[in-house]
Predict the 3D structure of the following.
Amino acid sequence: MSKITKRLVDGLKPDPAGKDLFVWDSELTGFGIRVKPSGAASYLIQYRTAHGQTRRLAFAKVGTLTPEEARATARDKLGEAAKGADPSAERKAARKAITVRELCDLYLAAVEAGEVAGRRGKTKKASTQTTDRGRIECHVKPLLGSRAVASLTLQDIERFQADVAAGKTKPKEEKKGRGGRIRGGKGAAARVIAMFGAILEFAKRRKIIDANPARGIQKFADGKRQRFLSPEELTKLGQTMRVAAAEGENATGLAAIRFALLSGCRKMEVLKLHWDEVDARTGCVRFTDTKSGPQMRPVGISALDHLAALTRNEECSFVFPSDRDAEHFVGMAKVLARVCKTAELQGVTIHTLRHTFAATAAEMGYSELTIAGLLGHSVPGVTARYAHVPDRALVSAADAVSGRIKAALDRS
């Protein structure tokens, strides 16, 4: 036992046996440091309650206070305990009283600090954080924000899901512009419940609640439509796009739509595609970032030929550049909507183009695993296998699928 000083703190290391390591101060009895096997260290106090029970209370992470500041805080808390207070019990009671609003803010701060992992244990992407924040502000806080987290029941979560589906969080006056509309519906409700369940699981790990009240809830079906274009519809779309191009429709938007159909790529994979990510020699696109992380995606020769025919803007690294600045194009959905309206094609979204690629591959007899590889899905044994070197079988499949779609689009 020795005095806790900055030098001692700087030299602390986890217990080689993988257990919590405790270091106690020689100057102030009951003041110490706990070092977790992960290396995380916290200042703590150990004391006895009025009933003779031994308690420990971690009150600050090492690094947030100097040893002298931590010792002063510990002295105050130990003094309170000596007078009959129970700081540990008081903290637990305070946690039990935390509101949903406060929990959501705590969760978002932890996500931003990298303390909460997303899919496959990776840090949540900025785009996912933005989506979560929007759902929290638009749905969770308005309906449940003032409720104590510890008071929530399964019935409360089910009622919340029903309220979101019914559009009860939809504002009376919708804002104009991107991201201004708040919709209800069962699909939105299911996605909000999935996120809120994760927040409640976070609360359980932080010992704010003993059990997750969202466990066991029957989520609504997400309502996603599996719309895809038939060969006849592809031909009609292709004909309409050629007429639209001749009449002055945005050329970048039309080019992006065609590439999405020929490659099966997601919307933002298309729009954020950089020229240096296109590898025509090996027949793939080397995405630096996708929904599943960095990825090598096989792309058919028809899709690559389409890119090769585009006029390159030397001042912009994006394949589909904005008309106004050095950023990527953003009006793809509007262009698609105008073209489909002219072509009288109903229910077509940008994601329909990706479904069309998948449906075409399935119609050609390719297996689900092959289609997953073509689409870049996170399927064990598929994505990992094609992460570094493009598989020739997948490249061949991509060539065949993109070739069939091109033939339908170019048919007179």
